[in-house]
Amino acid sequence: MRFPKLPNPGLDDRIPSHKELERMEKEEAGDRPKWDNKTQYMLTCVGFCVGLGNVWRFPYLCQSHGGGAFMIPFLILLVLEGIPLLHLEFAIGQRLRSGSVGVWGSVNPYLTGIGIASMLVSFLVGMYYNTIMAWIMWYLFNSFQDPLPWSQCPLNANKTGLVSECARSSSVDYFWYRETLNTSTAIDLSGGLQWWMVLALVSAWTLLYVCCIRGIETTGKAVYITSTLPYLVLTIFLIRGLTLKGSLDGTCDLQQFLSQGVEGTGLAFIVFTEAITKMPVSPLWSILFFIMLFCLGLSTMFGNIEGVVVPLQDLNIFPKRWPKEVLTGVTCIVCFTVALIFTQRSGNYWLALFDGFAGSIPLLVIAFCEMVSVVYIYGIDRFNADIEFMIGHKPNLFWQVTWRFVSPVIMLVIFIFYFVTQVSGELTYLVWDQDAEEFPTLADRQYPDWIYFIIFILAGIPSLAVPGVAIFKFIYNRCCQKDDGELHKHTKKKLFRPKFAFL
Predict the structure, then answer these.
(1) Does residue 310 have a known ligand-binding role?
(2) How far apart are CA 122 and CA 100, in angstroms?
(3) From CA 281, how far away is CA 288, in angstroms rounded?
(4) Does 296 show up as a binding residue in the annotation?
(5) Nearby residues of 136 by Cβ (< 8 Å), 6 or more positions away
(6) 47 is in an annotated binding site
């Protein structure tokens, strides 16, 4: 039984047929960069999917939403939502042989906004994600000291005792909030750029650029280390943890753990660093830990940069078609320039804002539009035939049910619930303020009114890019192009390309 789909004239002109794909595969086999083997490809996928968030964000979310009970809905959504969406994105991208803008523009030119929204999210997430990489590099640099600089409080100016701020909190807290971030007491108190963080950020973006411009030749080999070393280091830490006193009966100082601030980044840069100081040969453990974090983050950033550069190539909006190396360099420079906001004394608060809104609502909107577009506009029957062509058999009943019904409904429900809770709730953030009564516990502060404009930029603009581009294209085509019936007679190369490729 064929599944109904919305009218989509001109689709066959916009996408290559199966025979054309076979021909293109033979003709371009020697020209296109490719992985040395399937292992490189799989490790790259694993490296992109498993990143820093699995170490510092997921445990925090798990702890703050019920602990072990959180894993039940997480695993359910992983099976019914995450994996089906990942499979769909991989399959449609492989079928249409293009990046996000090219894929959705081929499905239907009015869907180009999905690709642009994906590019914007990758741009925003990459900016703050690589800032975390800069923090990691800063800690890794300081790990080559014995004792570790965060293992003890510094003396005050008179050498008569410890610095008051450190004595009232802890050495790891002090090193993170004062020595590393030199944090201010509010998001609107910028405090200027911190030069050591600027240097670390320069190093992070430079290293990423060097790896990316070499293409698959470098990244394909780098993933052997970046995607496997973290699991080796985690195994070492697990073995070490099992040999500690009290590990077999499950005892731990829970109160100390909770007081160290498992809010987001605090888990990686406070709780784990506190644990490392109590280990023998602590600099060695510190070096291993931050190398592990660095590998996790670097492999994910490869995907983030590709998520910006490849759509830019598809858009073809520049006077001359710039090579990928130039686009990558421009992307890194622009990202670094904007990311300087995270190197201010208020940078930690800005990063938390980006993390909370840039990758939340926009991703839900994009994921929902992707699945609905494939099922109801591209056509699930055509999609099934494409998968059969690529792997030799059609997707089974599980994929059919999740793609057609379960996953879109779940995403819609989550989006509505999340949007309602965010709009109805009071937006606050946590600050490090030694003058606060609850110090050293982080103080809860309300965002200033102007922050809602920033939130609109982070969450609203990428989300509105989907309908916004469609409306713009509709008006443009009605005013400046031929009517639809005449337009769809043109070939793929002529379709919707008056001046800019995305039009």
Answers:
(1) no
(2) 11
(3) 11
(4) yes
(5) 290, 293, 294, 297
(6) yes
**Residue 362 corresponds to which tokens in the numbers above?**
């926009």
Q: Is 396 annotated as a binding residue?
A: no
Rg of the chain in Å (alpha carbons)? 25
**Residue 443 contacts by C-beta under 8 Å, 6 or more apart in sequence?**
430, 431, 432, 433, 436
54 belongs to an annotated ligand binding site: yes
> What end-to-end distance do the CA atoms of the chain give, in Å?
36
Cα 271-275-276 angle, rounded to 5 deg: 115
How many C-beta atoms surround the C-beta of residue 211 within 10 A?
18
**Cβ atoms within 10 Å, residue 312:** 20
pLDDT tens-place string over residues 431-466: 999 888 888 888 999 999 899 999 999 999 999 999
Q: Which two tokens stand for residue 17?
A: 């047929």
Tokens 């906004």 belong to 113
What is the torsion angle, in degrees rounded to the nearest 10, for the CA atoms of residue 330, residue 201, residue 294 and residue 276? Answer: -170
The residue type found at 68 is G
> How buried is 495 (Cβ within 10 angstroms: 0-12 exposed, 13-18 middle, 19+ buried)?
middle
Q: Can you give the pTM of this predicted structure?
A: 0.85
